[in-house]
């Protein structure tokens, strides 16, 4: 849960803009100026929090000079790289805004689209951006298409998990902690918890289009995270549904193969003792029982050690008012 004690001690802003600075970044002064102008045009009070993930090449002196010039900037720097989730967590902890705006340290969408993102905060708890990648390189579009299909399999209907641009009500993080690198799937996690989520298709920044995005290892990590999130969303409260299904399929396969072996033994008089298939039958049977047992143990752990927290969110309660009142 995000600490909220700071909100009682300092002036509360309308919008806290959190900018995690990772390995990729554009000119700091230009990025800040573009973001500031768009946020300021909303007419709301704001602050900027730059969280630098131990990047020695990032021009911190530029931000410090802007800070001395009176710009509402707070700078947080890690001693080494801890990842995007750590940057966002610390940014949220240090922020005072009622609403949080996550923006990368480089341009992913056109600056003018930020205003549209903020406008939708009145109707949704999370507003996620999806880049219009029609002008992007073919490889990037194919990669994005592949992740879309994987996201659908995991139960997510929100595209472009690589786009960090999001506007979020602060209350969302009272119920959804940021762990590991699961922040990419915040819209899905928020919807599962009962928050209203809106996805906007926004124009991609020219500097972002056609540019290689990440190293191959990053895509593999995202794939693993996507599978983990899909499993957690579907089976966190009922793990036996997953393990029991896999175990039952394994046991059923072993029984079918065993029936086939017995049929051959009775009809064709083929002995069982020297059949490698018999080993597979035993292996599938034992493996199926073990997998199902894991799911059953997980159910017992959840039942006996559950924290008792609600896994739903009430949007509104309309109480009955008697006519005599």
Please provide a written account of the structure:
The chain crosses the membrane at residues 242-264, 276-303. It comes from Sphingobium indicum F2. One of its GO terms (cellular component) is plasma membrane. The protein has 325 residues and is an alpha/beta fold. The protein has two domains: 13-234, Spore Coat Polysaccharide Biosynthesis Protein SpsA, Chain A (Alpha-Beta Complex); 237-303. It is 44% helix and 13% strand. It has helices spanning 28-40, 60-68, 84-94, 113-119, 138-154, 186-192, 216-235, 239-267, 276-305, and strands spanning 15-21, 46-52, 73-77, 99-102, 126-132, 166-169, 197-203. Strands 3-2-1-4-6-5-7 form a seven-stranded mixed β-sheet, with helices on both faces. α5 (138-154) runs parallel beside α7 (216-235) and α8 (239-267) packs antiparallel against α9 (276-305). The relative contact order is 0.11.
Secondary structure layout plus pairing:
Blueprint: E1 15-21, H1 28-40, E2 46-52, H2 60-68, E3 73-77, H3 84-94, E4 99-102, H4 113-119, E5 126-132, H5 138-154, E6 166-169, H6 186-192, E7 197-203, H7 216-235, H8 239-267, H9 276-305
Parallel strand pairs: 1-2, 1-4, 2-3, 5-7
Antiparallel strand pairs: 4-6, 5-6
């Amino acid at each position: 849960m995000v600490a909220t004690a700071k909100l009682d001690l300092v002036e509360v802003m309308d919008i806290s803009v959190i900018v995690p600075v990772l390995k990729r970044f554009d000119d700091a002064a230009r990025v800040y100026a573009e973001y500031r102008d768009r946020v300021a045009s909303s007419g709301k009070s704001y602050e900027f929090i730059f969280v630098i993930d131990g990047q020695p090449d990032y021009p911190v002196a530029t931000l410090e000079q802007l800070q001395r010039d009176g710009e509402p900037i707070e700078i947080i720097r890690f001693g080494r790289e801890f990842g995007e989730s750590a940057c966002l967590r610390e940014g949220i902890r240090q922020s005072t805004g009622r609403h949080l705006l996550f923006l990368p340290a480089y341009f992913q969408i056109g600056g003018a689209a930020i205003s549209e993102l903020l406008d939708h905060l009145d109707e949704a708890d999370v507003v996620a951006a999806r880049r219009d990648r029609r002008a992007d390189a073919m490889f990037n579009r194919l990669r994005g298409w592949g992740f879309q299909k994987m996201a659908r399999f995991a139960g997510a209907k929100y595209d472009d998990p690589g786009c960090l641009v999001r506007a979020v009500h602060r209350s969302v993080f009272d119920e959804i902690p940021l762990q590991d690198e699961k922040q990419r799937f915040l819209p899905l996690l928020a919807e599962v918890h009962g928050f209203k989520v809106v996805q906007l298709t926004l124009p991609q920044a020219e500097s972002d289009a056609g540019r290689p995005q990440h190293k191959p290892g990053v895509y593999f990590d995202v794939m693993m995270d996507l599978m983990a999130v899909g499993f957690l969303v579907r089976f966190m409260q009922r793990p036996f549904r997953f393990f029991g299904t896999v175990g039952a399929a394994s046991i059923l396969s072993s029984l079918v193969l065993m029936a086939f072996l017995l049929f051959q033994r009775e009809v064709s008089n083929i002995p069982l003792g020297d059949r490698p298939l018999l080993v597979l039958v035993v292996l599938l049977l034992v493996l199926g029982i073990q997998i199902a047992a894991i799911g059953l143990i997980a159910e017992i752990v959840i039942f006996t050690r559950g924290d008792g927290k609600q896994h739903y969110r009430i949007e509104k309660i309309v109480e009955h008012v008697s006519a005599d009142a």
